[in-house]
Amino acid sequence: MGAVAEYFDNIKNAVTTIFEGMAVTASHFMRKPYTVQYPDRIPVRVQDTLPYRYRGILNVDLEICTGCLACERACPIDCIVIACEKDPKTKILTISQFDIDIIKCMYCGLCSEPCPTGSIHHTSEFEGADFSTESMIRRFVTDPIDAYKPKKGPETDERIAPILNRGLRYVNEFAPPGEAWNGGIVDGGAAPGADDEEEAAAKH
Amino acid sequence: MQELIHNLFSSGTFGKLPEPLVGAMVVFVLSAVVFLGIAFPFAGIVSWVERRVWARIQSRVGPNRVGPNGFLQWLADGVKHVCKEDVIPTDADPQLFKIAPYLVVLAFVLPWAVMPFSSSLILADMNVGILYMTSVTAITVVGVLMAGWASNDKWSLIGGIRSAAQIVSYEIPAGLSIFPVVLMTGTLSMQGIIRAQGWAPQHWFLFANPFTFVAANILYVSALAEGNRTPFDLPEAESELVAGFATEYSGMRYLFFFMAEWGNLFIIGAIITTLFLGGWQSPQVSNNPVVMNILQLITFNVKVLFLVFVSMWIRGTLPRVRIDQLMSLCWKYFVPISFGNMIGTAIWVAVWPAGNWVAGYIMFALGIVIALIFIQRVMYYLRRSRMELYFRPTI
After folding, report:
1. What CATH number was assigned to the domain covering residues A47-198?
2. Which residue in chain B has the smallest CA separation from A7?
3. HSE-CB for B381 with a 13 A CA cutoff
4. Same domain? B35 vs B153
5. Could you tell me if B121 and B27 lie in one domain?
6. Are residues B53 and B162 in the same domain?
7. Domain that holds residue B311
8. Which of residues 16-55 of A touch B (CB under 8 A)?
């Protein structure tokens, strides 16, 4: 290509490519922006759109905590502190302290995996900011409480049954495929999806 | 203006003060009102509009929290900058460092004197109006170079030098692109140039002949380069030079640089509108001069604001050019083409001294064809994206 032809080719390229580029950006004026205007200008709370296994701030259902200390041992950074005492006479395990330091927690999920009943579990809540470090330590036990004792058959207590149901479903999420264990406690086999919606509806 | 001052003086409002002093006072107050009330808020609002426009180009939303749809964002930013500490580096040259932003703002403020808003609304209809306009806007280079040198910082210096090289180079194609219009009208006055055109697009100089069409485009691009706008924002290239000549500035002085940059968009638009888009020319719908002036004011501002919008759109579209590309674009392409335009227009005027109205209609038709092709391309990209359409400018 001669120098003159190249010169005019450059001009042609510049004009046509800028023309096309302007057309592309002009088409963007008519497209809906992608932005999710967190936190206030959204139709649904972000927490409710998160997947079931999202690792948010930890929560503990003390009603079904067996006091086995598996989570405390599993925690790689020792952000969980549990104090349990067994009454030598009555053989009843009492939990007198269950603290989780949310500042230290790195949301690895190692504590919720060994939990036999799914008592300690991640929620979809992630807005944990506060003004003092002291208030970031979640203290779940205010009054000493008796640890949960797994029963042979299905859970009969109407108050505990739904909580255990949820907990075991959480545990089964981490079970290897085909080995989901319902311990003979959970009755009925509601589809996980339907369960999910029920839970969300119950929460809000 | 002089009559007004004279009337005020003779009515005894100012007692025994000497008349020239009172005149100077009135001019100062009026100019302060004009600049603080029109020019600076315009620069501020443009900064908000620009951020919204880019945001939509990038499928974002942009600032929409402060005030209705984020409209007061510019005030919040302005107040924040004014409240910040004015830091002057130890090794900087304090006098030059302090003066530089004012020179840049001066270059932004002076062109408003010859801004032809309507047939009567013009501060001074000088017989060298367009020449004045191009000369005073070039004062920017002094301020920017001064800022770059006085900061005593390598980024600032490189930014300042780049800006000087760029503005000085692009003055040539910009000046040469003004010549065709001057050749056709035989005047340098802003009002004279506008009066030589008509309100209909085929009577605009943009469509007068092929040479002026090319000249208008070259002038627009050169003006963007002189205003340090993307794709020619090399003096303040963030990725290379931190903030270029404004690196060491903070607070209000920093704000001044950017206010001048945004305000210059209006000047660029006004120059193009005056020379090529028929300025304030609007159809004669009424014999009432007030109605006509308001209509002309609206016409002029709509044209200018459209060009301001186009420059934002360009900024959202094109990447920054390299310094060698910038220079080759100017010296190898714009300067020869501008000379060709000038000679071509000279021949055109020699052949048809009163202008060729057929050419006006043909060029206007060509412009419509280009616009239709453009719309067709936009529709093509919209169809291909398969995205939800959203036409409201607010969100």
Report:
1. 3.30.70
2. B333
3. 18
4. no
5. no
6. no
7. 84-385
8. 18-35, 37
d(CA B181, CA B174): 12
What is the value of ipTM here, to two decimals?
A: 0.79
Q: How far B1 CA lies from chain A's nearest CA (Å)?
A: 45
In the DSSP assignment, the letter for residue A148 is: P
Q: Is the pLDDT of residue A48 over 60?
A: yes
Determine the straight-line distance between the first and last CA of chain A, rounded to whole angstroms: 71
Sign of CA dihedral B54, B174, B270, B161: positive
Q: Is residue B391 part of a domain?
A: no
pLDDT tens sequence across B200-217: 888 888 888 888 889 999
Residue A157 Cα to chain centre, angstroms = 27
What pLDDT digit, counting tens, does each position of B148-195 carry? Answer: 888 888 888 888 888 888 888 888 898 898 988 888 888 888 888 888
For the segment A184-197, the average pLDDT, to the nearest whole number, is: 44
Question: Quick check: A202 contacting B, CB < 8 Å?
Answer: no
Average pLDDT over residues B283-309: 87
Residues B125 and B5 in one domain: no
Among B374, B388, B389, beta carbon nearest to A19:
B374
A144 close to B (CB below 8 A):
no
- Same domain (yes/no): B79, B91: no
Are B138 and B240 members of one domain? Answer: yes
pLDDT tens readout for residues A153-176? 777 778 888 888 888 888 877 776
pTM for this prediction:
0.78
Asked if A138 contacts A56 with a C-beta cutoff of 8 angstroms, the reply is no
Please tell me which of the candidates B333, B381, B382 has its beta carbon nearest to residue A11. B333
Query: How many angstroms separate the CA of residue A30 from the nearest CA in chain B?
Result: 5
Residues of B within 8 A of A25 (CB-CB) are: 57, 313, 316-317
Q: Tell the burial category of B38 from Cβ atoms under 10 Å away from its Cβ (0-12, 13-18, 19+).
A: middle
Tokens 């929460």 label which residue? Answer: A203
Rounded to 5 degrees, what angle do the CA atoms B386, B389, B395 make?
A: 140
Cβ atoms of A110 and A102 closer than 8 Å = no
Contact criterion met (CB < 8 Å) for A29 and B395: no
Choose among B59, B316, B318: nearest Cβ to A33: B59
Q: Which of A17, A25, A34, A35 best probes binding to B when mutated, by most B CB atoms within 10 angstroms?
A: A25
Q: How confident is the model at residue B8 (pLDDT cuts 50, 70, 90)?
A: low
User: What is the residue extent of each domain of chain A?
Assistant: 47-198
Which residue bears the tokens 């009555």?
A90
- The pair phi, psi for residue B137, each rounded to 5°, is -65, -25
Which residues of chain B approach chain A closer than 8 Å at the C-beta?
Answer: 55-61, 313-314, 316-318, 332-333, 374, 377-382, 385, 387-391, 395
